[in-house]
Amino acid sequence: MKIDVAELLDRMSVELQKNITAEARENTVFVGVHTGGVWIAQHLHNRLANPFPVGELNIAFYRDDFSRIGLHPTVEPSKLPFDVNNRHLILVDDILYTGRTVRAAMNEIFDYGRPSSITLVALVERGGRELPIKADIVGTRLNLAASEHVKLFGPDHLRLELCEAKT
């Protein structure tokens, strides 16, 4: 599988700019889900020359499977260097799969305040949704077997790799 991530980001940034302009959302901020979502958010942020810093969410404590998988030893706190109240948030994740990561991210965002809106952006959307969550802007959609997953590597030169799921 060879996917040109830079080409996806170019197309996504054009679509995102159209969305921001059409909705007259001048006070838009980017929030990436740690780690791949932050990388994608930073690339989109740079392409759109957004004046606000990129926020970073680490949703480890908000996951509904936290008690089952435990805490990764290097969990770092989220960094939202702006007030989310009455802001338009661009929530960015690398791979949208079950929807549980996005649910956890939105739970954490609402602990910081009440945004005016949240636009969900995902580099890859794949089948297997467990929650009714759908991205507003998607780089590519992949139909993968249950034994396959896709992983983003970066942060400077972003690349996607298709891998067999570990059993």
N/C terminus separation: 22 Å
Count of separate structural domains: 1
Helix content: 25-40%
By CATH, the topology is Rossmann fold
- What is the tally of beta strands? 7
Largest sheet: 5 strands, parallel
In the CATH scheme, the class would be Alpha Beta
* Assembly state: single chain
Indicate the proportion of strand residues: 25-35%
By secondary-structure content and strand pairing, the structural class works out as alpha/beta
Mean pLDDT: 90
Give the neighbour order of strands across the main sheet: 2-1-3-4-5
Number of contiguous helices: 4
Write the element-wise H/E pattern from the N-terminal end onward.
HEHEHEHEEEE
**CATH architecture classification name:** 3-Layer(aba) Sandwich
Radius of gyration: 15 Å
- Approximate shape: globular
Which stretches are low in confidence, meaning pLDDT under 50 for 5 or more residues running? none
Q: What's a quick, concise take on this entry?
A:
With 167 residues, this protein is α/β, with parallel strands linked by helices.
Describe the structure.
By secondary structure, the chain is of the alpha/beta class. It has a single domain, classed as 3-Layer(aba) Sandwich (Rossmann fold). The chain has four helices and seven strands, in the order αβαβαβαββββ. It has helices at 5-22, 36-48, 66-69, 100-112; strands at residues 28-33, 55-57, 88-96, 117-126, 137-142, 148-153, 159-164. The strands form two sheets. It has a five-stranded parallel β-sheet with strand order 2-1-3-4-5. Strand 3 (88-96), helix 4 and strand 4 (117-126) form a beta-alpha-beta unit. Helix 1 (5-22) packs across helix 2 (36-48).
